[in-house]
């Protein structure tokens, strides 16, 4: 049996010490308190050297033209620590995913329209970072892949589910979900504080994380990533923790 309401998205609750969480509703609708991330300054030379090292492995774009941003990877937030919502524990960690049959589950409970649209844009085989949110130390722990594209989220019709939506109709469902499957753990835990240090440095020098949605739209629990963002963050698993 699938775990109850594991990935929640209803006004994304902010992480306890950092700003992202795993619950969303439209930003305008949410009354959940917004999380302030620790404003970690990048260690001197640390972030920039990481960006320079990453650039060495990438070919420069010789076209000289600004191309339209294309998102082909994702970041999915889920809460690894117990938290009751309408009497239901919404905890769902990477270990919970690995314990599922075939290490696969549906990504239900998204109740933010933009996050839902991102779910609907996901394509079979695309990869995503599994991000532990709303916990003592938020960050990326694993990689998963999309194994079934968007279809109606059954929890919207379940009156016992904390994310039941009485306004949604089966003939025209409001909310969608996808199926994801565990691919592998990252070689090390990549904390939000470290990613933020690179983001701050890249805002100054034009690196790939300068517009990363983890910091520009931090309340969203489903976030798209460009190829450059995904590749850079993935490269951090090869570096020593800062």
TrEMBL record:
GO cellular component, one term: nucleus
Classification via Pfam families: EVE
Positions of the UniProt region annotated as Disordered: 1-62
Assigned keywords, A-Z: Nucleus, Phosphoprotein
Gene3D superfamilies: ph1033 like domains
InterPro entries xrefs: 5hmC_binding, EVE_domain, PUA-like_sf, THYN1-like_EVE
Low complexity: compositionally biased ranges: 41-52
Protein name (record): Thymocyte nuclear protein 1
Gene, per the UniProt record: Thyn1
